Amino acid sequence: MLSRARILGLLFWFLASPAYAQQQNSPSDIVKRGEYLARAGDCIACHTAPEGRIFAGGRPMPTPFGTLYSSNITPDRDTGIGKWTTEDFYKAMHTGRFPDGGLMYPAMPFASYTKVTQADSAAIFAYLKSIPPVNQKNREHDLRFPYSNRQLILGWRTLFFSEGEYKPDPSKSAEWNRGAYLVEGLGHCGMCHSPINALGGTSQSDAFKGGLIPMQNWYAPSLTSNREAGLGDWSIKDITDLLKTGVSARGVVYGPMAEVVHNSLQYLTDEDTKAMAIYLKSIAEPTSRTPATSPVLPTSESSLLISLGKTVYDARCASCHGAQGEGKPPHWPPLANNQSIEMESAVNAIRMVLNGGYPPGTEGNPRPYGMPPFAGLLSDNEVAAVVSYIRTAWGNRGAPVSARDANELRSAPLN
Amino acid sequence: MAGVGLAISVHTFPVLAQTPGQPPDTMEARIEACSPCHGKQGEGTGDVYFPRLAGKPAGYLYNQLLAFKNGRRKYPPMNYLLEYLGDPYLQDMAEYFAEQRPPLPAPAASDASKEVLLHGQALVSRGDPARQIPACGSCHGPGLTGMEPGIPGLLGLRPNYVSAQLGAWRYGTRTAKAPDCMQQVAARLTEADVTAVAAYLASRPAPIVIAPAPKGAYVLPFACGSEPD
């Protein structure tokens, strides 16, 4: 039996707890919001090593200039960001500088994060201060000369970095502006979906125009061209399905984008996902679906290739993707009228045939269907043939590919 | 009216589940990605380096799927496939392959000499106490079919796969939860031991019962992180 004192105690607790919650409301709210925004920024993808403690850094990040190791952003005072202030954190996000003024390597997407508001930056910082501190020293970067000289970053910044928070476009809706803020800022989509030049930078005019991701050898398609991943003729539902669940009636995410959906996009609210979809749909430039201009192979050779390709397709692919490339969406994606198959770069189509893959497991699609890897079953010639076939059959307007293209991608890194 | 509505929905549901526009809602369809290397039922394929999965304990298979997902066990094509799948789904996959019972293949003709096979037999069934090598059978079971939940069977595997894995344990590229018993055992083996064990295991005919022994069926000779008490 409960003693009177305990009953009184419980009663007091019940009466007191709402007031207590009220008091705690703002700090815990800001931490929650910060956690959400840290998801939107996909901080975990780089700042957590495989099997490592959350946000303790140490993940190797191969770049064309050498290997960088991500830093510890837990609140440990000696090895993390425990001594940083809210202002220090904003300075890092906004200007790409450490509290002591030192320059960050642009692998940290501060060129995108500069658009994040001071309030959002403060929320992310409050969240990071709330997680368990991990005492783990940052590992030295391993960059080749001359890239090991941080002064070079000054040159990079002059060419490719313009500081400044996102400025809403008053001629557009609040929803559009929210989408733009997320895509251009925290989402740092441009880090992959913009072409990277030899200096490791992207010029403003090339934003979202697509490019081969260095070191990974996946092609991040243009978000502005409807011939690539431009979403101009996609429905809002198909876009939000893709971003939130990883699969849609038009196609599924794969390669590095599977990581983004898995760690970041699936956690966004329906409102934010829709805002991103509206913005992404709007930046697609009107492009006509014109046939590929110059096939790289002589016609006779490519017609032979394509007839072999049909044989391979019927034997290996049609059972899932359909005799007419119609698929069984969303789980078995259609290949007919699929931009990802038709676009100028055939890298992704070849890699999917070689490596197969699963879309990410998400709350909306926890048990995804996978594509088998065919690297061990098909010769270079057969891979080239089947990719040439799917790029040209059923009204698709891609160009054929060569056995050499297929062979070169056999050694592409898988992780 | 309510009854009619219910009756209709009960009748239509199975039809909807089999909509021709959707892939079958089965694990078999979901693990198509595994079949080129491991076979539809996990029976193995012609490639001697890809292991049979069928009938291994679900706990063992789950541990391996997790290890590949997290990069602890390194094989890039597997690491890549599993990286963004949820743990409960990996458990489903493990259970699917654990439940399959395709027949074991007939033992392949071995080119190993009689001496090598005898040496293998000695290590598998008796170990080598002088070198502190336990018999394989002392953990993997007298019938070598493993034990629930974490110890795999050793039959139906090709010598190339067994040697490659023992080599990986010896060199530390394959690791498991501490205490990492297989690493301790493999570190005491010589090249010749590995060759002999792999050849002998591959020469064994299928036992009558191919299922793993139930949990706790026998006592392990030492602590093993993969087989919690």
Record the SSE blueprint.
The complex is a heterodimer of chains A (415) and B (229).
Chain A: H1 4-40, H2 43-47, E1 60-63, E2 66-69, H3 86-95, H4 110-113, H5 118-130, E3 142-143, H6 152-160, H7 174-186, H8 190-193, E4 211-212, E5 219-220, H9 236-245, H10 256-263, H11 270-283, H12 299-321, H13 339-342, H14 347-355, H15 380-392, H16 403-409
Chain B: H1 2-17, H2 27-30, H3 35-38, H4 58-70, H5 76-82, H6 87-99, H7 114-125, H8 136-140, H9 159-171, H10 181-187, H11 191-203
Helix pairs in contact in B: 4-5, 4-6, 7-11, 9-10, 9-11
**Total E-strand runs of chain A:** 5
SS element count, helices of chain A = 16
By DSSP (H or I, 4+ residues per run), the number of helices of chain B equals 11
Q: Percent range for helical residues of chain A?
A: 40-55%
Quick rundown:
The complex is a heterodimer of chains A (415) and B (229). By secondary structure, chain A is mainly alpha-helical.
Describe the structure.
The complex is a heterodimer of chains A (415) and B (229). Chain A is mainly alpha-helical. In chain A, 44% of the residues lie in helices and 3% in strands. Chain A has helices at residues 4-40, 43-47, 86-95, 110-113, 118-130, 152-160, 174-186, 190-193, 236-245, 256-263, 270-283, 299-321, 339-342, 347-355, 380-392, 403-409, and strands at 60-63, 66-69, 142-143, 211-212, 219-220. In chain A, strands 1-2-3 form a three-stranded antiparallel beta sheet, with no helix packed on it. In chain A, strands 4-5 form a two-stranded antiparallel sheet. In chain A, strand 4 (211-212) and strand 5 (219-220) form a beta hairpin. In chain A, helix 1 (4-40) packs across helix 5 (118-130) and helix 9 packs across helix 11 (270-283). Chain B is mostly helical. Chain B has eleven helices and no strands. Chain B has helices at 2-17, 27-30, 35-38, 58-70, 76-82, 87-99, 114-125, 136-140, 159-171, 181-187, 191-203. Mean pLDDT of chain B is 88; it is low at 1-19. The interface between A and B is medium-sized, with 32 and 29 residues.
